[in-house]
Amino acid sequence: MTYQLLDAMSAEVAYREEQLRKAGRDARMTKQSRFVRWLRTHRVTSVSVPAQERRTTAAVSSRADHLAR
Q1: How far apart are CA 44 and CA 42, in angstroms?
Q2: Mean pLDDT by 10 residues, the chain (69 residues)
Q3: Which domain of life does this protein belong to (predicted)?
Q4: Is the pTM value of this prediction over 0.70?
């Protein structure tokens, strides 16, 4: 085996190990902690967005106004 293949395999193993660790944490999560996580993401961090206002178009003055006079 070459060193590049060995590096690629070790990176793949580390990635899959991390994915399994994350899946294990999610599986152990209780119903209450799921609710708390949902509440934090949806309620605590919510950002209020102001209502959108209707804008009217304004007349744009020509750049050549000073030349036409």
Answers
A1: 6
A2: 86 92 77 79 72 77 62
A3: Bacteria
A4: no
